[in-house]
Amino acid sequence: xxxxxxxxxxxxxxxxxxxxxxxxxxxxxxxxxxxxxxxxxxxxxxxxxxxxxxxxxxxxxxxxxxxxxxxxxxxxxxxxxxxxxxxxxxxxxxxxxxxxxxxxxxxxxxxxxxxxxxxxxxxxxxxxxxxxxxxxxxxxxxxxxxxxxxxxxx
Amino acid sequence: xxxxxxxxxxxxxxxxxxxxxxxxxxxxxxxxxxxxxxxxxxxxxxxxxxxxxxxxxxxxxxxxxxxxxxxxxxxxxxxxxxxxxxxxxxxxxxxxxxxxxxxxxxxxxxxxxxxxxxxxxxxxxxxxxxxxxxxxxxxxxxxxxxxxxxxxxxxxxxxxxxxxxxxxxxxxxxxxxxxxxxxxxxxxxxxxxxxxxxxxxxxxxxxxxxxxxxxxxxxxxxxxxxxxxxxxxxxxxxxxxxxxxxxxxxxxxxxxxxxxxxxxxxxxxxxxxxxxxxxxxxxxxxxxxxxxxxxxxxxxx
Amino acid sequence: xxxxxxxxxxxxxxxxxxxxxxxxxxxxxxxxxxxxxxxxxxxxxxxxxxxxxxxxxxxxxxxxxxxxxxxxxxxxxxxxxxxxxxxxxxxxxxxxxxxxxxxxxxxxxxxxxxxxxxxxxxxxxxxxxxxxxxxxxxxxxxxxxxxxxxxxxxxxxxxxxxxxxxxxxxxxxxxxxxxxxxxxxxxxxxxxxxxxxxxxxxxxxxxxxxxxxxxxxxxxxxxxxxxxxxxxxxxxxxxxxxxxxxxxxxxxxxxxxxxxxxxxxxxxxxxxxxxxxxxxxxxxxxxxxxxxxxxxxxxxxxxxxxxxxxxxxxxxxxxxxxxxxxxxxxxxxxxxxxxxxxxxxxxxxxxxxxxxxxxxxxxxxxxxxxxxxxxxxxxxxxxxxxxxxxxxxxxxxxxxxxxxxxxxxxxxxxxxxxxxxxxxxxxxxxxxxxxxxxxxxxxxxxxxxxxxxxxxxxxxxxxxxxxxxxxxxxxxxxxxxxxxxxxxxxxxxxxxxxxxxxxxxxxxxxxxxxxxxxxxxxxxxxxxxxxxxxxxxxxxxxxxxxxxxxxxxxxxxxxxxxxxxxxxxxxxxxxxxxxxxxxxxxxxxxxxxxxxxxxxxxxxxxxxxxxxxxxxxxxxxxxxxxxxxxxxxxxxxxxxxxxxxxxxxxxxxxxxxxxxxxxxxxxxxxxxxxxxxxxxxxxxxxxxxxxxxxxxxxxxxxxxxxxxxxxxxxxxxxxxxxxxxxxxxxxxxxxxxxxxxxxxxxxxxxxxxxxxxxxxxxxxxxxxxxxxxxxxxxxxxxx
Lengths: 154, 301, 783
Description:
The complex is a heterotrimer.
Chain A: E1 2-7, E2 10-15, H1 22-29, E3 48-51, E4 54-57, E5 70-72, H2 79-91, H3 101-114, H4 120-126, H5 138-152
Parallel strand pairs in A: 1-5
Antiparallel strand pairs in A: 1-2, 3-4, 3-5
Helix pairs in contact in A: 2-3, 2-5
Chain B: E1 17-19, H1 24-34, E2 38-41, H2 47-52, E3 60-63, E4 73-76, E5 79-83, H3 88-92, H4 95-100, H5 102-110, H6 114-119, H7 122-127, H8 136-141, E6 145-150, E7 153-158, E8 163-165, E9 168-169, E10 176-183, E11 189-196, E12 206-215, E13 218-227, E14 234-235, H9 237-243, H10 250-257, H11 274-300
Parallel strand pairs in B: 1-3, 2-3
Antiparallel strand pairs in B: 4-5, 5-10, 6-7, 6-10, 8-9, 11-12, 12-13, 13-14
Helix pairs in contact in B: 9-10, 10-11
Chain C: H1 4-7, H2 20-24, E1 40-46, E2 52-58, H3 60-64, E3 68-70, E4 92-93, E5 108-114, H4 117-126, E6 128-134, H5 141-145, E7 155-158, E8 161-164, E9 169-177, H6 180-186, E10 189-196, E11 209-214, E12 220-224, H7 229-240, E13 247-250, H8 266-278, E14 282-285, H9 288-294, E15 299-308, E16 314-326, H10 332-346, E17 352-360, H11 374-392, H12 396-403, E18 410-411, E19 420-421, H13 427-438, E20 453-465, E21 480-486, E22 492-496, H14 505-517, E23 524-526, H15 548-567, E24 577-582, E25 587-592, E26 595-601, H16 602-611, E27 618-623, E28 630-642, E29 648-658, H17 665-684, E30 720-724, H18 747-759, H19 770-779
Parallel strand pairs in C: 1-14, 12-13, 16-17, 22-23, 29-30
Antiparallel strand pairs in C: 1-5, 2-6, 3-5, 4-7, 7-8, 9-17, 10-15, 11-12, 11-14, 15-16, 18-19, 20-28, 21-22, 21-27, 24-25, 25-26, 28-29
């Protein structure tokens, strides 16, 4: 069936079978490669996107569920936040291999938008669904806290 | 025989007929026509995984996510009502749950990730009938009732009677859970839930919920339930019997919690061992009782 | 002495990595992200039995669906080794692209390609097998060596020579040094223990992928997850008989590796075979579950016997290393040597005996995993050294500092054929600092601890080599290369085959070049490259902090000075020139000290060379490091054990590293953070467990039951301290050494020692799970 939704700010329409996953439609049919396949069963968070503002695992979401909704990937985060997150992540050394980074970016965006003055504990809790095998999370957590401070200072 | 050739977690390796009803009546009608070869899709965090692993290959899927009016948490006439499409994250944000059903709130904070909690529904968690379901012990000790509908009508099932065996509930193939109802607990009561797992985001190796009602230093009501230590989430009536009528003291909690081994039958699996589960179950129950009691005292004080 | 950041313009300063922004925004493409029009999707077909001989493979149904199918009949049959690192004579070859004799459940027996993944999946499932013989899987190394066991392999190739395999032992290495009997006689205390390590899965976030594209002129372009584009090209050339000039392997960012793509992945060869038959681009991306069947760490059964005098002086060390390598050899033989190298380079045992065997089983083949055996050896050695210290009534720190292999000692780098003398050593400094930070002196023995929650502090140390170079050409191939060219505006293009799998290798190269030539790192282009335009590089492995960029930069520098003498006519001798980054001009400047008019910017030189037809200033170098100096690391870890549930939490960590000059402090700290969490996970969580009957992974490749730590499973930020030693490695670029693996190696040992210090029980099997802890505590004894 033809489904229509807003993807990273643009209206798109695409033909998708009911058994097609949102992740694969985004990547293979719409060319948005920011969400990644990694575990395939919702354990690692690399495929995270926002669906009508809620964080979902696109590897466990049918593409048809996006019909009429809005999808935001790491490539489509509001520029103000995207720049902030990118700067904090790169300055704090929060990026190594980078395969998990888009998932972390989406979750960081959501968290920064939802809550002010983040605590370390909150950041750790919020990001526990995003696995990283390189950084040991330390610099990622520092980066999100730094971004939160910058936001708070505005 | 290896399953490697059949599994594919990158795609949904099978196809199915797909239905997207807009009303509950439409859904019930479809369900009665298509059952038993049908599965209901809500959050998808469990069903889609099972389909990728080829553990289930439904011919028909009814996606109920677009049904209006099933996503709510309300309180009326002393009951908290949770709609079938309410997600874990909805519950997490609900003051009724955090204030009145503390054991469930505990479970939410240790269940899955923010992403999973945003997708998964509490009703779905019950319907999967996993012995390790995090929502089950808290809802069991809070005396939750499951409301199930079919074209034949709606019935109320006490959660005690809901689970049969791993993956099996008492629901008929044409029935769907529409609501979960939890009685608002009285004053001087509280509850708690604890679980042991390998990491902060994991299924339970063992879990326990405790509900306590205390009056004049005496336990007037108590309920204990455990997860992942039996073929289904179970109440520990033996422990409960040792609590009711006794003084609310650490000694009582300790003695009562030792009774739980009578009501559980854990197994060895990839996550843990039977002997470990047997050893930690009383610990979890005792800790949960202490935590619930400290909450009562906190409220009274 | 000036500190590093003051001494240099770029080195020692935190400069954000150039790829961070595109990674965070999800714009950077990994192999899995690359697709081309008209591409087919490939699926690999596996044997349903882990140990069997196949009579026939029926592909008719798959073909009738329109899929392209290959079976062992369609591919070359000469065995090879997927890892080219040893010289040919000691390369053990037992691999085929597809096989009629599957020896574990992940052995590919056929493959299909189709226009969609769904169709490929259906086609793959339709393939049927007729078996000649099905054997019971052998899942235990000792059972495998027993006389009752069926031979997993009867013959393999060593180099070009066919050799028999006896009792499923694929490779062996024994070693003797000194007089063991004398060492035993001199010992006042002898301890013997048997250790078993876990078979960890790398769990790199990007599952392996390969896309093979047939070009219109007969060449093949390959986009794949690999740490070594050149070895990938060579192996494809060797296996298929394709001239190397017709193969171009692209260097694509890799979503983590930790050693899992140190070899040429079989999926790459399968994609080439499918592509050749389909005459279309074919992409195969492994699913997570296939990936988990593709590779694992080496499971080691270590028997250690060590002795010491009352004074704490070691007198001998004996190690038996039985490695369960799974169904194939990737680099079992070199690891037998390297494991010995780690053992002898930790402490001065003086008299040494080593017996190493690599044993086949019907399990996932073992390949390099960050640390290449050092995390396992270090865990065992650091555990037994603590036991020895207790027996001697010594502080383990004192015993270790007394006996460790350090400054001026001979160090084995990567095994017996790669030796050098240690010229920088910050171990004592790190131990002193770490001791203070963790509060070592307040540490109490386990007997003084009580209550439900008990804390314990443990120490572990280790090291890793920076590369596998050495003064002579041994059994290991190790050299690399690069091209550096000065562009017409004074910026630089840096072209190398070296891969960055996340650690920041190429960033470090850019900084070294920047320092050398005064060109800021952001004006140095790290050119996306492939095998066609780069000199040979063996592999980005073994934490090689290579100097190749610096080598090229020095040649470029001398050419720049030559050009400068043509522009500044008074200058007669290029050696009088200096080249630095000028902060006011924000660019590189060539000058002669004390002479005001003898100054010219690098961009002016570059422009002039171009305008006056002097030609391009560039250098291409091929470089072999003449030593592989050790990077030393120490970890102090405090844990809290819940003695009622066996749960353990890491409470505080002090991670110390002697990596010489710290080129990029933030990235270096990040390596230590990541190393700790991975090591913690090794000590406490990870293992791949097999179903004894079916040979299947119990978790079926699903990561829901392969747990690694989450953001909530490590100590608070304020409780994780990183310290660096103030050392300078004379053989390293700007005094630097590599870090990636050293950051992991001591962790499991430190954690195990901390758990012992908390509960007074030693564990000899990894992981040390709550189940094992509770069992041991309630049993009251050792486990």
